[in-house]
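[job 0417] fold request received: Helicase ATP-binding domain-containing protein
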Amino acid sequence: IEIKELDEFAQAAFHGYKSLNRIQSRIFQTVYYTNENILVCAPTGAGKTNIAMISILHEIGQHFRDGYLHKDEFKIVYVAPMKALAAEVTRTFSSRLSPLNMIVRELTGDMQLSRNELEETQMIVTTPEKWDVITRKSSDMSLSMLVKLLIIDEVHLLNDDRGPVIEALVARTLRQVYN
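[job 0417] inference complete; emitting structure tokens
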């Protein structure tokens, strides 16, 4: 799939790219044109970050109306396995989404956000433990209800010490979506 096949707004997030790789191209239709849940299992370096970007662009596209991005209608949450990776993901996505004026912020044990900062943020990069704490609080239900896309990186950690936290996040998210 060539980048020029994406919507014009989405092409900005792929500046410098000519086309998607084979794995990205193979699941492009599902990721970019549907709201299907997906699980991507691919080796390091296979382009999973770009698959996440495609899903983010799909979500953004659903809130583009009348030539305007309705940023107050949605939040995207990216759950990174650890704080160091959360900082790197925040930098990467912040840079790539800046042409769309999307605000990407880190929310971990080290990085707190005020209510105002949370409101003006479209994409939150967090850790499983931090998102678990936030989604357990009933006072933050309004934030949880605005989450339209949840990306869990390194989901294979389900088979690790942190597995129960990730499992709880998935179960809580499914309960919120289907209730």
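[job 0417] notes: The chain has one domain: 3-178. The helical segments are 8-11, 22-33, 48-61, 83-97, 115-120, 128-136, 141-146, 163-178.
[job 0417] exit 0
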